[in-house]
Amino acid sequence: MCLSPNILPAFEQLNLYEELMTFAKRGREGHFYSDQLKVIATSLGLPADVVGYDRILLARPELYDMLYSKIPSEKMHMSKKVLSFQQNHEEVMLRFSDNTTIHGDILVGANGAHSAVRQHLYKTLDKQGLLPKADTKDMCKGYMSLVSTTEALDPEKYPALLRELCETTFIIGSKDIPYTWATFTVPGNKICWNVVVQTGIEEIADDQFRTSDWIPQQDQAMMDAIRHYKTTYGTLGDLFDVTPIERVSKVYFEDMLFETWTHGRTILIGDAAHKLLPNTGAGAVNAMQDAVLLANHIYDIKPTSFENIKRALINYKEERFDAIKEQYPQSHMSAKLIYGHTFSERILRQVVFNWLPKSVQEKQLSKDTAYRPQANFLPLAPKRGTLKIIPQWPSMRISKEEEEVKKKVAGVVAL
């Protein structure tokens, strides 16, 4: 997983940044190679003294473990499968497959691209004639990926593991090899690897694509077919051999920007509301930003009346939607550059990597990095770097409380 400066201030607010860095590596550049390991390009991020933070890379399970350890166990209910929910002016009731129910004020569907909350919500709205036609379409699926992390490796054999900074490589196959494979060094003397194939070009990938279930034997067949591809650490097979097959995940690179995020007491966030192509951690970072901004708007609900809840959820979408919408063409462009293997995409890669002025790239990077929401109701993380940050909506509740204090102070002075 890659986390950018767009979300790291929120980790700092929660006093989690230092712990996060104990199992993450800073990544300041990425190296692009051909399948014969010929250098294609090197990408450099903006300096940390400008943006305040380096982007960081880490093994996803360690982040899960850290976050899970901070949540009281009684607040987590595992192995629950959502069947349906009902909502009215008084509450929302969620029903699970084990015949249990739970009642609450707000239902947040943060359960992924194929969210059961979204599916039930849309089914209900469609019956009522309230669902936009755009939200009835299927998600686009253009790429498929196998991803995992090796066991701890011998630094003498892999000296890059001892370097302070993450070594990031992308190896882009030739016209006869419609794959891109990447490696990232992470703490613990491990290497994260990722193999992405464009669908509609390679038969074995399309066979995998048609199989929605994760079956290790099928993934093993695909891995066997590509194990001879070169990396800067030997072959892909060398990394596969030190990776337990049960840790390998098959991921579809789907994308969809849904129009309907909220209705009544229900709100969708993360991949349930907007599935971005997961280039450079965009999906994970945006989901975390959603959580931060939704928390801000929930904090503003006072008192917790039905109308106040609806207004807060609508305000959340109004603040967030345009920022997400703006990223869609960027995520498509990034996917074409890194994973695209059609003739036009190869030409595009040549133009961007070799002819696009560095100043243009830096201008876009600055714009992308300037958006970094934080929790309004917590002390803000200290300003880091010289980059001007895009302002977020102020807290209506805090603004109202501050105004009331000013009136009281003015009243005392007048007396």
Automatic annotation (TrEMBL):
Domain of life according to the entry: Eukaryota
Residues in FAD-binding domain copies: 242-298
InterPro entries the record matches: FAD-bd, FAD/NAD-bd_sf, FAD_mOase_fung
SUPFAM superfamilies: FAD/NAD(P)-binding domain
Sequence intervals crossing the membrane: none
Swiss-Prot/TrEMBL keywords: FAD, Flavoprotein, Oxidoreductase
Keyword Nucleotide-binding: no
Gene Ontology terms, MF aspect: FAD binding; monooxygenase activity
Pfam family, one: FAD_binding_3
Keyword Ligase set for record: no
Record-stated family: Belongs to the paxM FAD-dependent monooxygenase family.
Protein name: FAD-binding domain-containing protein
